[in-house]
Amino acid sequence: MPVAAKELIRAFKAFAQDKPQDLVRLVDGVGDASSSDLTKCFESVAHKRLAEDEKRHVYACAAYLRLIRRFPDKALFRIYVRAIKTVDGRTRELIVKLLPVVNNIRDHDELCGLLRSSDVDVREAAARALGKVGGKAAFLELHAMVEEPHFQGRLEAMDAAVGMAGHHAIPVIGSLMRVGN
Predict the structure, then answer these.
(1) How many whole angstroms separate alpha carbon 163 and alpha carbon 14?
(2) Concatenated DSSP letters for 102-126?
(3) Phi, psi of 147 (to 5 degrees)
(4) Dist CA 122 CA 96 (whole Å)
(5) Which of 38, 35, 27 minimizes the C-alpha distance to 2?
(6) Residue 68 burial (CB < 10 Å; 0-12/13-18/19+)?
(7) Helix (H), strand (E), coil (C) string for the chain
(8) How far apart are CA 128 and CA 87, in angstroms?
(9) How many CA atoms, within 13 angstroms, populate the side-chain half-sphere of residue 32?
């Protein structure tokens, strides 16, 4: 019999999974999960209290990634992008892995916008994610951004552009060199 999504949400909220296979078993047994269910599970995974317990947080992140691979939902892309600014480093790395699974091209502009952050960790995570999911529109947005005189995310934008376009990123690198760092 399939596990109800509510039981899975309770498991993520409980922070009491001593064995990773318990949470994985629940994830594998879920019959269906709505965007709301998946968001509630993510909120539990991203919670500061769970992040403080490294071992359990690693298990929860792995289980959540497995869950999203089973139930990819493009509606979550924007939620994850916005969370990059507020979560701990391990959850931020989880988000970088999640974004390609729930890729939503309509929200790439918001991901590009994270390169304007004053937080270098946020910019680096956004660049890694853009390198995996970015397309032509994101590439053009990055090109425009690096030409802005006071744009702080130039190096991260260059990394993202190279990840997206390889040698086709030469114009972005050229803009970066003209404007300076």
Answers:
(1) 38
(2) T--GGGHHHHHHGGG-S-HHHHHHH
(3) -85, -10
(4) 11
(5) 27
(6) buried
(7) CCECHHHHHHHHHHCCCCCHHHHHHHHHHECCCCHHHHHHHHHHHCCHHHHCCHHHHHHHHHHHHHHHHHCCCCCHHHHHHHHCCCCCHHHHHHHHHHCCCCCCHHHHHHHHHHHHCCCHHHHHHHHHHHHHHCCHHHHHHHHHHHCCCCCCCHHHHHHHHHHHHHHHHHHHHHHHHHHCC
(8) 16
(9) 1
Average pLDDT, integer, range 112-116: 96
Phi, psi of 3 (to 5 degrees): -80, 135
Beta partners for residue 64, in sequence order = none
Closest residue by Cα to residue 126 from 116, 137, 139, 136: 116
N residues, the chain = 181
Query: What is the SS3 assignment for 136?
Result: helix
* Predicted TM-score of the model (pTM): 0.86
Predicted pLDDT at 1: 45
Range from 22-31, 121-130, 164-173 that averages highest in pLDDT: 121-130
Is-contact 142 127, C-beta < 8 A?
no
Which two structure tokens, joined as six digits, stand for 38?
């998946």
Q: Which residue in this structure is represented by tokens 């994850």?
A: 80
